[in-house]
C-alpha cells in the first residue's frame, strides 16, 4: 500500500476521493490523471476534481529548496505517465511512440514467421514431393466470380424488364455455383487444412441459402399466378392462350386475360405531360387546375415569367413558384407544402402495402447478393494467402470492412453518375415521377454514415482487456466514429422535408398576418435538388486524419497517406459537384452526369481499395518480399478500380439497352 506524500498536487485528490487507490507510479498530476481514469458513468465528478487540480497547480510551492518538506523529488516521466498508446497491441497500430520516426527497414524480430499458406505452397514454393492442385482453386474462383458478378447482375437486369431469358440466367447461376462448390470440395479433399477456423465456407453457404430462398419465393409467386390464371379460365373470365400463360405466369407481366388486349400490352407509352422549348420536364398534371381567366393579375404574372425566360437564364420549375403559384401551370410537384401522399405506400390498401414491401425486399435481397459475392472474394483471398491470423484479426477486419464499404460506395457513386436510380432522381436529375415520395440519395448516404458510426463507436475496444486504459489509437478511431454518428444525424435531419418546413417557419412567420394568403410561396431554385455536404465532409475529414495516422514503418505511413489523400479528394470533388449544381440545378429528367462525380467515384473506390491494402499483414508481407513500393500499390489499385468500373458500365448499359428495347423511343432535344 503506497502512502501519499504531502504534495499539494496529491492532497486534493485524497480530499475529494479518499476511497480511490493512490498509485504514484501512474500519476504525475494526480487530480488530472484521476479525472481521466474516472468511469464514464461519473461525469458529475469531473467538475470539482478538475477545478481542484487547477487550484493545486496555481498554489504549488517552488521546489528550489530541495530541503523543503513540501517538495517531492521529480521521478522520471516514463514511470509516471501512462504510455500514449497502451501496451496491448503491437506493430503498426499500437505499442509505439507517436514522436518517433518511422522505421525504413523491417524488424523481423517483431513479426514471427507466418505459418504456411495455400498460396505459398501452391504458387510461391511448390513442393516437389507433394502434389498441389492450384487449378482446382482457380476453377472455384472463376466459377463463383462468373456466378455472382456475371449471371446474377445480368439476371437482375433481365428481371427489371421481365425478360424471357431471366430464367436462363438463374439456371446458369446455379450451374456455375455447383461447379464452384465441386471444385472447392475436391481441392479441400486433396489439400491439408492450412487455415484453422476459416469462416469463408460457412459465410458462403449462408449467402447461397439466401439465393435459394429468393428463388423459392420466385417459384412460389409463379405458382400463385398459375392458380389465379386457372381460376380465371374456369370462371369463364378468359379463354386459354399459351401466350397469355407465358406472359402472365412466367414473366409476371400485367395481362388482362384477354387475347386482344394482351397483344397490345406495353406497346403504348404515355407521352410526357409537358415539353417546353428550353427543357424536357415531366410532372403530374392531375392536381393542376387551369388558370382562372378572370384573374388578370395571375395571368399577367405568368406572361411576365414566360417573357423573362426568353431574355434571361432559364429558371427551374421550382423558381417559378410565386405567390400566385397555386393556380400556375408551372406549379412544381416537389414543393415542401404538397398535400399529395408523401410515401409510395400511403393511400393504398393493406394488401398493396404488403405487395410493395415484398417487392422492395426481394429487389434489395437480389442486389445484396452481388455485394455478398465481393465479401466472399475478400475472405477467400485472406484465407488462401494466410492473412489475418491470431491477434491481428481485429485490425485486419477493421481495414477490410471499412475499406470495402468505401469501395462499394465508390462503385455505387459511379453507377449514379452513369444514370442508375434516375427514376427516383438519384442520378443528379429531376425525378420523372414520385418526386418526394422516396428518400434522397443524400439521406441514404447519411443513414449509412450514421449506422457506420454508431456501430464502430463500441467496436474500437475489441481486443482490449477489461480495465485497460484508452489508448491514443482507440481515442482517434472512436472520435472519428462519433463524428460519423452525429454528422449522419445532421445529414438525415437536413434531408427531412418536415425539418425543412420547420426551418422555413421563421421566414414564413415574419410575413404579416394581414398580407398572408393561401397561395404558395416561391421557393429558390436550389430546392429542386439536395445539397448536403455532410457525407462528403465525414469522408474527407477521415481521409485527412488517417493520412496523418502514426505507423511504425515508413511504408505503412506512405500507404495510409495515399488512401487518406484519395478519400479527401473525393470530398473535394463532391463539394465541387454541389457548387456547380447549386449554380444550375437539374432541369431535366435525364441524368446530368457531372464530370466531378466521375472523378469523385474513382477516388472513393480507389481509396477504399488502398485502405484494404494497408492492412498490417499485407504491408509486412510486401516488405518481406521486397514489394514495399507505393507506386506499385497505387497502380494495382487503379487497375482493379478501372476493371470494376468497366464491369459497372457494362451492367448499367446492358440494363439501359434492355429498357430501350421494351419501350417506345423518346426523342431528345437540346436545352440551349
From TrEMBL:
The cross-references to InterPro entries, in alphabetical order and at most eight, read: DUF2427, YTP1_C
Ranges for domain DUF2427 come to 132-222
Q: Which residues cross the membrane?
A: 137-158, 165-185, 205-224, 368-386, 392-418, 438-455, 475-494, 562-583, 633-658
- Name recorded for this polypeptide: Protein YTP1-like C-terminal domain-containing protein
Q: Where is the Protein YTP1-like C-terminal domain?
A: 373-655
Enumerate the UniProt keywords alphabetically.
Membrane, Transmembrane, Transmembrane helix
Amino acid at each position: 500500500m503506497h502512502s501519499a506524500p504531502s504534495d499539494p498536487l496529491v492532497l486534493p485528490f485524497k480530499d475529494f476521493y479518499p476511497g480511490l487507490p493512490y498509485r504514484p507510479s501512474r500519476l504525475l498530476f494526480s487530480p488530472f490523471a484521476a479525472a481521466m481514469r474516472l468511469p464514464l458513468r461519473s461525469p458529475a465528478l469531473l467538475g470539482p476534481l478538475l477545478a481542484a487540480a487547477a487550484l493545486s497547480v496555481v498554489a504549488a510551492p517552488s521546489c528550489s529548496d530541495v530541503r523543503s518538506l513540501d517538495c517531492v523529488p521529480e521521478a522520471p516521466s516514463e514511470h509516471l505517465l501512462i504510455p500514449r498508446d497502451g501496451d496491448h497491441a503491437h506493430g503498426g497500430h499500437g505499442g509505439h511512440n507517436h514522436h518517433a520516426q518511422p522505421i525504413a527497414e523491417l524488424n523481423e524480430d517483431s513479426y514471427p514467421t507466418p505459418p504456411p499458406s495455400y498460396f505459398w505452397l501452391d504458387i510461391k514454393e511448390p513442393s516437389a514431393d507433394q502434389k498441389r492442385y492450384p487449378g482446382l482453386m482457380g476453377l472455384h474462383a472463376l466459377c463463383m466470380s462468373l456466378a455472382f458478378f456475371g449471371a446474377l447482375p445480368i439476371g437482375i437486369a433481365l428481371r427489371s424488364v421481365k425478360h424471357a431469358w431471366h430464367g436462363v440466367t438463374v439456371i446458369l447461376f446455379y450451374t456455375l455455383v455447383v461447379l464452384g462448390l465441386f471444385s472447392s470440395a475436391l481441392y479441400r479433399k486433396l489439400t491439408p487444412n492450412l487455415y484453422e477456423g476459416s469462416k469463408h465456407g460457412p459465410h458462403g453457404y449462408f449467402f447461397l441459402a439466401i439465393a435459394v430462398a429468393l428463388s423459392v419465393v420466385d417459384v412460389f409467386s409463379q405458382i400463385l399466378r398459375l392458380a389465379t390464371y386457372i381460376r380465371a379460365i374456369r370462371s369463364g373470365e378468359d379463354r386459354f392462350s399459351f401466350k397469355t400463360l407465358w406472359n402472365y405466369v412466367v414473366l409476371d407481366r400485367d395481362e388482362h386475360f384477354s387475347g386482344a388486349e394482351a397483344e397490345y400490352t406495353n406497346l403504348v407509352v404515355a407521352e410526357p405531360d409537358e415539353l417546353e422549348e428550353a427543357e424536357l420536364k415531366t410532372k403530374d398534371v392531375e392536381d393542376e387546375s387551369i388558370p382562372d381567366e378572370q384573374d388578370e393579375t395571375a395571368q399577367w404574372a405568368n406572361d411576365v415569367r414566360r417573357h423573362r425566360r426568353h431574355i434571361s437564364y432559364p429558371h427551374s420549375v421550382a423558381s417559378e413558384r410565386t405567390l400566385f403559384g397555386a393556380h400556375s401551370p408551372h406549379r412544381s410537384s416537389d414543393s415542401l407544402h404538397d398535400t399529395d401522399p408523401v410515401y409510395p405506400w400511403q393511400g393504398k390498401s393493406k394488401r398493396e402495402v404488403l405487395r410493395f414491401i415484398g417487392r422492395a425486399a426481394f429487389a434489395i435481397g437480389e442486389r445484396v447478393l452481388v455485394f455478398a459475392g465481393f465479401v466472399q472474394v475478400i475472405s477467400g483471398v485472406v484465407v488462401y494467402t494466410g492473412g489475418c491470423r491470431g491477434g491481428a484479426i481485429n485490425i485486419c477486419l477493421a481495414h477490410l470492412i471499412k475499406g470495402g464499404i468505401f469501395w462499394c460506395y465508390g462503385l455505387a457513386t459511379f453507377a449514379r453518375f452513369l444514370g442508375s436510380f434516375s427514376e427516383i432522381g438519384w442520378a443528379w436529375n429531376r425525378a420523372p415521377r414520385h418526386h418526394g415520395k422516396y428518400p434522397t440519395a443524400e439521406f441514404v448516404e447519411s443513414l449509412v454514415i450514421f449506422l457506420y458510426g454508431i456501430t464502430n463507436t463500441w467496436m474500437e475496444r475489441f481486443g482490449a482487456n477489461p480495465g485497460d486504459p484508452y489508448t491514443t489509437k482507440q481515442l482517434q478511431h472512436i472520435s472519428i466514429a462519433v463524428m460519423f454518428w452525429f454528422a449522419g444525424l445532421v445529414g438525415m435531419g437536413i434531408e427531412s422535408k418536415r425539418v425543412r418546413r420547420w426551418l422555413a417557419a421563421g421566414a414564413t412567420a415574419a410575413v404579416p398576418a394581414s398580407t398572408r394568403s393561401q397561395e404558395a410561396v416561391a421557393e429558390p431554385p436550389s430546392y429542386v435538388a439536395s445539397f448536403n455536404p455532410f457525407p462528403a465532409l465525414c469522408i474527407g475529414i477521415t481521409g485527412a486524419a488517417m493520412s496523418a495516422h502514426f505507423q511504425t514503418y515508413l511504408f505503412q505511413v506512405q500507404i495510409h497517406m495515399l488512401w487518406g489523400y484519395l478519400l479527401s479528394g473525393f470530398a473535394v470533388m463532391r463539394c465541387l459537384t454541389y457548387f456547380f449544381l447549386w449554380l444550375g440545378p437539374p432541369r431535366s429528367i435525364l441524368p446530368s452526369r457531372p464530370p466531378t462525380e466521375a472523378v469523385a467515384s474513382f477516388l472513393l473506390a480507389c481509396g477504399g481499395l488502398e485502405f484494404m491494402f494497408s492492412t498490417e499483414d499485407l504491408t509486412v508481407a510486401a516488405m518481406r518480399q521486397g514489394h514495399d513500393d507505393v507506386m506499385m500499390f497505387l497502380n494495382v489499385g487503379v487497375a482493379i478500380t478501372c476493371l470494376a468500373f468497366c464491369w459497372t458500365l457494362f451492367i448499367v448499359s446492358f440494363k439501359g439497352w434492355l429498357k430501350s428495347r421494351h419501350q417506345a423511343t423518346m426523342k431528345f432535344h437540346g436545352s440551349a
